[in-house]
Write a structure and sequence with these properties.
Blueprint: H1 9-13, H2 18-31, H3 35-43, H4 68-71, E1 84-99, E2 102-109, E3 118-121, E4 125-132, E5 141-142, E6 162-168, E7 173-178, H5 184-189, E8 193-199, E9 208-217, E10 227-230, H6 236-239, E11 242-245, E12 250-256, E13 263-268, E14 273-277, E15 285-287, E16 289-293, E17 297-302, E18 308-313, H7 317-321, E19 325-331
Parallel strand pairs: 1-4, 3-8, 9-12, 11-19
Antiparallel strand pairs: 1-2, 4-6, 5-7, 7-8, 9-10, 12-17, 13-16, 13-18, 14-15, 14-17, 18-19
Helix pairs in contact: 2-3
Bound molecules: copper (II) ion (2 copies).
Length: about 325
């Protein structure tokens, strides 16, 4: 271990092909206490790189349905101005497995990183009861339109305290929420963020709906991320590909909450998609790659032309190799 001390992520990444397989496990070794397991796993890594890492080959923690509540959002409800939509969020410190064998002391909303998907229809009255059960002061800051005293910046909620956020949901689109206590960088990279969907008054066409919140974890505390993913653990959707059907539009509500790195990206193999930035207008770009800074988000709509297995991943290859990759299994 001592020879690893002080080695930064970038130094680990710099270099040739073997790093493709070695990088995630170098991160695990640095995370401490799991060296044996890391070595064991490293010995079983395919040498060919991520192309081979599907299913059992992919080193993701958890079971096949563990991320269902973060992947599949609650259903959209019809427009009904004034209807109350209630959610409860509890901030709690919790250790979570962010890559196989790597446990991270996260700060969470409701025990997961990202936190739960919050969904409302435009003109609903959104009411979010927040309780702080953690050891640090926190808030919830929503993106969107709301009064100044609901902004989650000045109303710091101390451990043991509660606060109720209440405002009409608008404008429609894909948004996000996150803690806005200081130091902001820390409260975000520890895990306090999630997706916030507001549906338009005129419902979107039917689709298979997914949520992807881009995240990363600095497991060795050096201010650089060791693992990347969407919706939590590294390599999860490589181990458990997302099943979709060719006859149905796939709609992805995507947001970037990655800390430390300036941008993140989404790239789809084998097809193009419509990308609606922020999801708040009808205008879209037709492409296979988008990039997002932290806080940027939008809606992706894919009509797959072909069946089969198609990869999606960050187009920063470094992020891909550290866990931000997955597959769609497109069936007829
Ligand atoms: Cu916080
Ligand atoms: Cu923000």
């Amino acid at each position: 271990m001592s020879k690893d001390r002080g080695v930064t992520r970038r130094q680990l990444i710099v270099g040739a092909a073997p790093v493709v397989a070695a990088a995630p496990f170098a991160g695990m070794a640095l995370a401490g206490g799991r060296t044996q397991e890391a070595r064991h796993l490293a010995g079983h890594r395919p040498a060919a790189g991520h192309a081979a890492m599907i299913g059992e080959e992919a080193p993701a923690p958890g079971g096949p349905n563990d991320l269902d509540s973060l992947t599949y959002p609650p259903e959209a409800l019809p427009h009904q101005p004034g209807r109350v939509r209630e959610y409860s969020l509890l901030a709690e410190d919790k250790e979570i497995e962010v890559a196989k064998g790597v446990v991270y002391p996260a700060w969470t909303y409701n025990g997961t990183v990202p936190g739960p998907v919050i969904r409302a229809t435009e003109d609903d009255l959104l009411r979010v009861a927040f309780a702080n059960g953690s050891s640090h002061p926190h808030t919830i800051h929503f993106h969107g339109i709301h009064p100044a005293n609901m902004d989650g910046v000045f109303e710091i909620v101390n451990p043991g305290d509660t606060f109720t956020y209440e405002f009409p949901a608008r404008p429609y689109g894909m948004h996000l929420y996150h803690c806005h206590a200081t130091p902001l960088k820390k409260h975000i990279h520890k895990g306090l963020y999630g997706a916030f969907i507001i549906d338009p008054p005129e419902p979107r066409p039917p689709a298979k709906e997914l949520v992807m919140v881009m995240n990363a974890f600095d497991t060795d505390g050096d201010g650089e991320n060791n693992f990347y993913a969407v919706n939590g653990p590294a390599f999860y959707y490589a181990r458990y590909p997302i099943k979709v059907s060719r006859s149905q539009t796939v709609r992805i509500y995507i947001a970037n909450l990655t800390e430390f790195d300036l941008i993140n990206s989404f790239h789809l193999h084998g097809d193009f998609f419509r990308y609606y930035p922020t999801g708040s207008t009808d205008s879209f770009e037709y492409t296979d790659t988008i990039m997002l800074c932290q806080g940027q988000r939008g809606i992706i709509e894919i009509d797959f032309a072909n069946t089969g297995r198609f990869m999606f991943h960050a187009h920063q290859s470094e992020f891909t190799e550290l866990g931000w990759m997955g597959f769609f299994e497109v069936e007829e």
